[in-house]
C-alpha cells in the first residue's frame, strides 16, 4: 500500500500563524496555486482513493489536486478522523494571544500535549486514537492501492512520527509546510517514509 499524505494549501490563518484546527477557513490565493501545482506534481501517481478531512481548506485542496492529476471525476471521500487537532478556546488566536490569555496552560500543553489539552480542545492522545482507528481500517480494506489523504499538519506529523519513525514523541520536531506532502509505503506490516517531511 502507498499512502500520500497532503497538507492543505496555505490559508490566511497560516500566514498570520493562528491556531486554526477546527476553524473552517478557506485557502488563500497562494494556497490554491500550491494545491494545483501539487496535483501536477502527483500526476504520475496511480491513485485508488482520494480522501480528505471535512474542513473547507482540505476539500478545496482535494478538488484542485484531483484536477491537476486529471482525475477530476474521482469520488472525494470526507473522513472525520483526519480533522486537525481541536485547539478549543485558542482557535483563531496567535501564539502571542494565547500566551497572554492563558500562559500557564499553554506551557503545560507544550510540555505534555498527550494529556494536557487546550481549554475546550483535545489532547494529542485523542488525535492519536482517531488516526490509529483510521489506519487500521484503511489497511484492512485497501491492501494494494495508493491512497491520497488531504489533511492537516498535526495529523501528518503524528502519523510520520509514530508509523514511519516508530516514535510518536518525535511529533514536535517534524514539519510539513502548507501544500506539502509525504509519501509512505507499507511493506511486511511496517510503514516506511519514502518522501517528504522536514525537521524543525
TrEMBL record:
<dbReference type="InterPro" id="IPR029033">
    <property type="entry name" value="His_PPase_superfam"/>
</dbReference>
<keyword id="KW-0324">Glycolysis</keyword>
<keyword id="KW-0413">Isomerase</keyword>
<dbReference type="InterPro" id="IPR050275">
    <property type="entry name" value="PGM_Phosphatase"/>
</dbReference>
<dbReference type="InterPro" id="IPR013078">
    <property type="entry name" value="His_Pase_superF_clade-1"/>
</dbReference>
<dbReference type="Pfam" id="PF00300">
    <property type="entry name" value="His_Phos_1"/>
</dbReference>
<protein>
    <submittedName>
        <fullName>Histidine phosphatase family protein</fullName>
    </submittedName>
</protein>
<dbReference type="InterPro" id="IPR001345">
    <property type="entry name" value="PG/BPGM_mutase_AS"/>
</dbReference>
